[in-house]
Amino acid sequence: MDNDKNGNKQGLETERRIDHLENLVEKKTRTERHLEQHTDISSSPKNIEHAKQIQKERQWEIDHLKDKIANGDNSSNDYKENTEKRFLYTEGYLNHNADHMDKQTFNNAMEKQEHRKDQLNSLK
DSSP H helical segments within the chain, as ranges? Predict the structure, then answer.
């Protein structure tokens, strides 16, 4: 019976990861398309650079999820540690630089922090 519970839990976890992977790929694709079509109308080069940074993070997360789905949970702790480090680094950066950031960039960073917080909660 325990094997069935573990197998079912593992199957649900894999399904959740696949759903998350699909969501990331869709967001990345939409952002790439938007960047290609609207780079000439962006209000700020910082916004474009921020979008590109988010794209790099999404690609890293996509690669990580693909690896976890294919190979299991062997690298779970590294992912959690890296996410915690990014969360803490960004928190410090925002605390020291919020006064010098435009509102949109600050809001984007706060949204990303919320996403990281959700990720960390789901990894516990």
Answer: 2-38, 45-71, 76-97, 103-123
| Amino acid letter for position 26 | E
CA–CA gap between residue 106 and residue 92 (Å, rounded): 13
Please check whether residue 53 is in contact with residue 86, taking contact to mean a CB–CB distance below 8 angstroms: no
Token pair for 124: 């516990």
For 42-82, write each residue's pLDDT tens digit: 667 777 777 778 888 888 888 888 888 877 765 556 778 88
Structural tokens at position 17 = 């990861």
What sign results for the dihedral spanned by CA atoms 20, 25, 29, 32?
positive
Summarised one tens digit per residue, pLDDT across range 7-50 is 677 788 888 889 989 999 999 898 888 877 776 656 677 777 77
